[in-house]
């Protein structure tokens, strides 16, 4: 096994806490306070993360989100909205200058996604990388798992993991969602559609576009089993060893303060972010 990276196992936390910690991991890395690090986490309560430039008012059914108890948070990365519920979420921070990281965003996706590929294999799932068609889709869905991007993971042609990446201060943050179970009724209830008929057609089509770990295996894997598989997967896929990185009381306070001041405010301004 090669280089040692940090590993943060932060458990289930609020959507605001989760996004604050991802931001601070990038900040700590840029200051040299931590090295390349991988984090696994869950969401409690369930959350909807909105892409950095996405218009939440046009995409989210706030009344239904409230009824389901789902909290809405804006993330630093772009892309479409994601429901984070019964899933394992991962985040990776690594310098752009790291010898294993290509300069190209797309090729860096491929490197990191090798960890995901090996994680699925640890669970006995035959996954493959997505190579999207270049054709322009006629309709634009608000839902992330409706469409695959370069080097996201497919199982039986269906999207099994969704990821987003950003670069700031010479650092890379990539994070993503690995559904263990998917409740398509709940998922589509949370998003706005022009009519009930269009929503139902989107829901019906979704079963051919996305798949969860438990649907792919016909088994009932729990969060800890999936976490263990993907920890091994990242070590094998990236050729690294993961060493536990504990969050100090000072860092936990820093995360909580950022969650409170920024991420609990859905409309935090992205226009001034550098």
CATH class: Alpha Beta
Oligomer: single chain
Number of strands: 11
Give start-end ranges of low-pLDDT stretches.
134-147, 270-274
Number of discrete domains: 1
With strands numbered from the N-terminus, the spatial order across the biggest sheet is 7-8-9-10-6-2-1-11
CATH architecture: 2-Layer Sandwich
Question: How many alpha or pi helices?
Answer: 9
Sheet-strand content, in percent, reads 15-25%
Mean pLDDT: 90
Name the CATH superfamily assignment.
Bira Bifunctional Protein, Domain 2
Largest sheet: 8 strands, mixed
How far apart are the termini? 36 Å
Structure description:
One of its GO terms (molecular function) is catalytic activity, acting on a protein. It comes from Planococcus halotolerans. This is Octanoyltransferase. Keywords: Transferase. Residues 32-242 form the BPL/LPL catalytic domain. The structure is a single chain. This protein is α/β, with parallel strands linked by helices and 274 residues long. It has one domain (4-263): BirA Bifunctional Protein, domain 2. The chain contains 9 helices and 11 strands. The strands form 2 sheets. The chain has an 8-stranded mixed sheet with strand order 7-8-9-10-6-2-1-11, with helices on both faces. A 3-stranded mixed sheet has the order 4-3-5, with helices on one face. Helix 1 (15-30) links the parallel strand 1 and strand 2 (37-43). The longest helix has 18 residues, at 105-122. The radius of gyration is 18 Å and the shape is globular. The model is unreliable at 134-147 and 270-274 (pLDDT under 50).
């Amino acid at each position: 096994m090669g280089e040692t990276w940090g590993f943060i196992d932060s458990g289930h936390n609020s959507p605001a806490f989760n996004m604050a910690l991802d931001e601070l991991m990038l900040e700590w890395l840029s200051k040299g306070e931590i090295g390349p690090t991988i984090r696994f986490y869950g969401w409690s309560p369930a959350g909807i993360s909105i892409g950095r430039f996405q218009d939440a008012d046009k995409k989210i059914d706030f009344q239904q989100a409230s009824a389901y108890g789902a909290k809405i948070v804006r993330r630093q990365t772009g892309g479409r909205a994601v429901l984070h519920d019964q899933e394992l979420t991962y985040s990776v921070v690594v310098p752009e200058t790291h010898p294993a990281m290509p300069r190209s965003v797309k090729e860096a996706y491929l490197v990191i996604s090798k960890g995901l590929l090996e994680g699925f294999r640890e669970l006995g799932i035959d996954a493959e990388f997505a190579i999207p068609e270049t054709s322009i889709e006629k309709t634009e869905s608000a839902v992330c798992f409706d469409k695959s991007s370069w080097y996201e993971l497919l199982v039986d042609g269906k999207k099994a993991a969704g990821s987003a990446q950003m670069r700031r201060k010479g650092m890379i943050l990539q994070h993503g969602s690995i559904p263990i179970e998917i409740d398509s009724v709940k998922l589509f209830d949370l998003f706005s559609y022009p009519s009930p008929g269009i929503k139902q057609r989107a829901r019906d089509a979704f079963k051919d576009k996305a798949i969860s770990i438990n649907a792919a295996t016909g088994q009932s894997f729990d969060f800890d089993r999936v976490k263990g598989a993907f920890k091994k997967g990242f070590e094998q896929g990236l050729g690294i060893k993961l060493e536990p990185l504990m969050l100090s009381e000072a860092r936990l306070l820093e995360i909580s303060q950022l969650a409170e001041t920024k991420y609990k405010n859905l409309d935090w301004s992205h226009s001034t972010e550098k």
